[in-house]
Design brief:
The protein is an alpha+beta fold. Helices cover 40% and strands 28% of the residues. It is built from 8 helices and 10 strands. The protein starts with a helix and ends in an 8-residue tail after the last helix.
Length: 246
């Protein structure tokens, strides 16, 4: 089990890797455990740089020991896997609270998730102007970014915790961006982000699911721009045209 965990996090010595990988390949149970461990590590790595509080680690460890005592020896065979997974889940809960300002509320990360999916309809072209696309969310329209070489590729509609949300996908030189506008009042601003004011509008940059994103408000609604661009370019695109109701 220790070697399985080391294989997942890349610390397994090279001389042991071949044998362990062969055992994993021959065992559906080990493959499932390895995949769970990798997912837990990925979840932990894509969180913010905030460290998990020591008190939280103590609580998770105490709960793990309680589970061990109830479930017996089989559970104790994988303490490292159990603890890593529990810490990742607990840390994810902490991150959700940090990003949203409270548990249970829709978050900027939830909105960004829509922008990392694939379009389900082509981008509208008729009625497009030099600055805006002919699509909006409660009066807040999407920008036409062709001035900067970003062409609208498609649209995806969905929901963020019951709220309607629309994403427009843009492409340029093999890169892709997702721009989301969420209906209803603005989501709580993420507290762990790098803020920058442009013409008195606050833009917050942070990393979500391993990608750089910018979050801000237009017409009282939360907007998120995420994808293959550096911070300076994301800010330039997010702030043009100027934050306005339409």
């Amino acid at each position: 089990m220790a070697e399985l965990s080391a294989l997942a996090d890349g610390t397994l010595p090279a001389e042991r890797r071949g044998e362990v990988e062969a055992r994993v390949a021959a065992s559906p149970e080990l493959r499932e455990l390895l995949e769970r461990q990798r997912q837990a590590l990925l979840a932990a790595q894509t969180l913010t740089a905030e460290e998990v509080p020591g008190s939280l680690q103590v609580t998770v460890e105490a709960r793990r020991r309680a589970l061990d005592s109830r479930r017996g020896a089989r559970r104790r065979l994988v303490p490292r896997l159990a603890l890593t997974g529990a810490l990742a889940l607990a840390a994810a809960g902490v991150a959700a609270i940090v990003l949203s300002g409270g548990p249970g509320a829709p978050t900027v990360a939830d909105a960004a998730q829509l922008a990392t999916q694939t379009p389900t309809a082509p981008a509208p072209r008729r009625g497009m102007t030099a600055t805006r696309l002919p699509i909006e969310v409660e009066g807040v329209s999407f920008p036409n970014l062709e001035r900067y070489g970003w062409r609208a590729l498609g649209v995806r509609r969905g929901h963020v915790d019951g709220r309607r949300a629309t994403a427009i996908f843009y492409g340029k030189d093999g890169r892709r961006l997702g721009y989301v506008i969420v209906a209803g009042a603005g989501l709580s601003r993420p507290s762990v982000a790098q803020a920058k004011y442009i013409r008195r509008v606050e833009y917050q940059t942070l990393r979500l699911n391993g990608r750089l994103a910018v979050s801000w408000r237009r017409g009282g609604h939360t907007c998120v721009l995420i994808g293959g661009a550096a911070r300076a370019e994301l800010l330039k695109l997010a702030s043009w045209p100027l934050n306005s109701p339409r």
